[in-house]
């Protein structure tokens, strides 16, 4: 785990929830920053795992129908959509608190694995 940075919050500021910070970090992992790097996360497995933990952490055990042509706007669900749904379903019964904890841990691991600092990958263009 990378060393912690000094807190920039003042006594009047409330530090952000670790889950909220992890969501912000995950968004930078999932958002392309440079045209030559169209898939910053580089892994359907990682992004669908994040999706599964996020949905369990925010919605819980709600179970939407399996993605199919009849309930998909593009008429043909892709492998990502189905895999993301299955990842979420695999967390049935997990508390929202536990899902948040696992999401935060996974984002931290991915930030190190993909060498991301402040939302910018250090290996892009290397």
Task: Walk me through the topology.
Blueprint: H1 18-30, H2 44-58, H3 79-89, H4 96-113, E1 116-117, E2 120-121
Antiparallel strand pairs: 1-2
Helix pairs in contact: 1-4, 2-3, 2-4
Organism: Orbilia oligospora
GO molecular function, one term: fatty-acyl-CoA binding
InterPro entries: Acyl-CoA-binding_protein, Acyl-CoA-binding_sf, FERM/acyl-CoA-bd_prot_sf
Describe this structure in words.
This protein is globular. It is built from four helices and two strands; from the N terminus they run H-H-H-H-E-E. Strand 1 and strand 2 (120-121) form a beta hairpin. Helices cover 45% and strands 3% of the residues. The model is unreliable at 5-12 (pLDDT under 50). The chain has a two-stranded antiparallel ribbon with strand order 1-2. This is ACB domain-containing protein.
Give keywords:
126 residues, mainly alpha, Acyl-CoA Binding Protein, two-stranded antiparallel sheet, 3% strand, FERM/acyl-CoA-bd_prot_sf, Acyl-CoA-binding_sf, ACB domain-containing protein, fatty-acyl-CoA binding
What CATH calls the topology of the domain at 25-30 and 40-117 is: Acyl-CoA Binding Protein
Q: Please give the alpha-carbon distance between the first and last residues.
A: 23 Å
- Low-confidence spans: pLDDT under 50, at least 5 residues? 5-12
What's the CATH C level of the domain at 25-30 and 40-117?
Mainly Alpha
Give the number of DSSP strands. 2
From the 3D coordinates, which CATH architecture of the domain at 25-30 and 40-117 would you assign?
Answer: Up-down Bundle
> Shape from CA axes?
globular
Query: How large a portion of the residues is in β-strands, by DSSP E?
Result: under 5%
* Widest sheet: strand ordering: 1-2
In round numbers, the mean pLDDT is: 75
As a percent range, the share of helical residues equals: 40-55%
Number of helices: 4
Rg over alpha carbons:
16 Å
Largest sheet: 2 strands, antiparallel
H/E topology pattern? HHHHEE
Structural class estimated from helices and strands: mainly alpha
């Amino acid at each position: 785990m990378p060393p912690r940075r000094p807190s920039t919050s003042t006594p009047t500021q409330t530090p952000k929830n670790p889950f909220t910070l992890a969501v912000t970090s995950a968004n930078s992992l999932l958002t392309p920053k440079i045209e030559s790097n169209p898939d910053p996360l580089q892994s359907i497995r990682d992004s669908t795992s994040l999706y599964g933990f996020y949905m369990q952490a925010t919605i819980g055990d709600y179970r939407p129908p399996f993605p199919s042509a009849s309930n998909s706007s593009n008429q043909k669900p892709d492998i990502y959509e189905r895999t993301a749904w299955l990842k979420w379903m695999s967390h049935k019964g997990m508390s929202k608190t536990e899902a948040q904890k696992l999401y935060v841990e996974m984002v931290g691991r991915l930030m190190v694995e993909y060498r991301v600092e402040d939302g910018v990958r250090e290996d892009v263009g290397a």
